[in-house]
Design goal:
about 400 residues; alpha+beta; globular; 6-stranded mixed β-sheet; 8-stranded antiparallel β-sheet
């Protein structure tokens, strides 16, 4: 069977051009349709973009890049640059759109990026979707409905100053694509572990610190996705009082005091390690028990500061569970949903998880499931986008979102 996509992955700690050349060689590609770059900020983002676009025809190739807290490939974790190149067949059509100054109006800017991505499609979408339509005629309608024919990969930089920014961006995407029932996955750009430093996305035109980038995918191929974190709740949900991302009180007590009591330590002993291994979480209403993580990043007086706000007045305190196993579970679930065979595995992994489970170990777990010959690409980010088991599209903390592009055609 002809490959539905030719894919190559390359990396280099210092030279983006070397990473690009390795990726093209790995995939046997001479004229890529997509070049996707993940890079750590030890490299200058403007130089990374300049190097990449100097090697390709930007009129024919879609280019996008994102700064990270570490790049992920099938060979493991690396700093520097990692490059994914793809040569598409008629089964896959893509478009890229970017909207700048995202923090001014995240919802509208996200909608704008989606519209630009669909306008940026250069091939006939109907040709990519025709095999799925044939599958419906032949009795495979439920398989087609289960997979959808449109996906959105979402990359964001510079909006974390607004705690509700990622949520507004998701709403903006949904405003444009809700009728197509798409999968929405992605990540927030990172700058290693310097949360005060700027983050970046780039396209062929330039580098941007405050932007939304959308890669729209239209295809008849099966795809799968899953999210997981591995944490387990401690007891029943408790009442919390918040101001923005600051948790002030839990069950009527100062938040830090209650938090320390449950964990079994003193307030003075609460440090980064304890916070990362005992996040808070909001129950996800759905058939499968699942909790949406909200990560504590610091203590302010008697209060606890979270990365993202809680959208409920009730929350679980979470204890470290099987974070390592969450990689295997999520990859197996996404692979099964994609039909059991993968052309590509894409990982959006929270940067904080690297501090709990080493990313090299995580990649070993992934390749044990999908095989060492399956292309794996992704990055450690400042939060992940993806659907919960209930179907809600969320901005997650301390979670891995896995997106698998399969080999088989829907309905066949």
């Amino acid at each position: 069977m002809k490959k539905p996509i030719n894919i190559g992955v390359g990396k280099d700690k210092n030279d983006p051009i070397s990473a690009l050349e390795e990726s093209l060689d790995d995939g046997g590609i001479t004229d890529p349709d997509i070049v996707f770059v993940s890079f750590t900020p030890n490299l200058d983002p403007n130089e990374v973009r300049k190097d990449i676009v100097s090697q390709i025809d930007v009129d024919e190739t879609l280019v996008l890049g994102v700064s990270s807290a570490g790049n992920l490939t099938g060979d493991g974790y690396t700093r520097g640059a990692a490059v994914l190149t793809m040569k598409l067949t008629q089964l896959v059509v893509v478009g890229v759109g970017m909207a700048r100054d995202a923090s001014e109006n995240p919802r509208e800017k996200a909608s704008e990026a989606v519209r630009r991505s669909t306008r940026g499609v250069k091939r006939d979408i109907s040709a990519a979707l025709a095999p799925a339509a044939t599958g419906i005629v032949k009795g495979g309608a439920m398989d087609v409905v289960r997979h959808s024919m449109a996906d959105v990969l979402l990359l964001v930089s510079g909006v974390l100053g607004d705690p509700w920014g990622p949520r507004e961006i998701l709403l903006g995407v949904l405003d444009e694509v809700m009728s197509t029932v798409p999968r929405i996955v992605g990540g927030v750009a990172a700058n290693e572990y310097d949360f005060e430093a700027p983050t970046y996305v780039f396209d062929a035109e330039g580098v941007h610190e405050d932007a939304v980038t959308v890669l729209s995918v239209f295809t008849s191929l099966r795809r799968g996705y899953a999210v997981d974190h591995g944490f387990q709740p401690v007891g029943e949900p408790v009442k919390v009082e918040t101001e923005g991302t600051l948790v002030k009180r839990i069950e009527g007590k100062p938040a830090l005091e209650y938090y320390a009591e449950v964990i079994g330590t003193s307030p003075e002993s609460i440090d980064e390690t304890i916070l990362l291994t005992h996040p808070l979480g909001v129950p996800d209403p759905g058939p499968r028990e699942y909790v949406i993580i909200r990560t504590p990043i610091g203590v302010e007086g008697d209060s606890i500061r979270l990365v993202s706000p809680l959208k409920s007045n009730f929350a679980h305190l979470m204890t470290r569970g099987d974070v390592r196993g969450s990689f295997e579970r999520s990859v197996r679930a996404a692979l099964e949903s994609a039909g059991g065979e993968a052309s590509l595995v894409f990982l959006f992994n929270c940067a904080a998880r690297h501090l709990v489970v080493d990313s090299d170990e995580a990649i070993d777990i992934v390749t044990d499931v999908v095989g060492e010959d399956t292309p794996v690409f992704g990055f450690n980010c400042y939060g992940e986008f993806g659907p919960t088991p209930s179907g809600s599209i969320m901005h997650h903390n301390q979670t891995v979102t896995v997106y698998v592009v399969g080999r088989g055609v829907m309905g066949h």
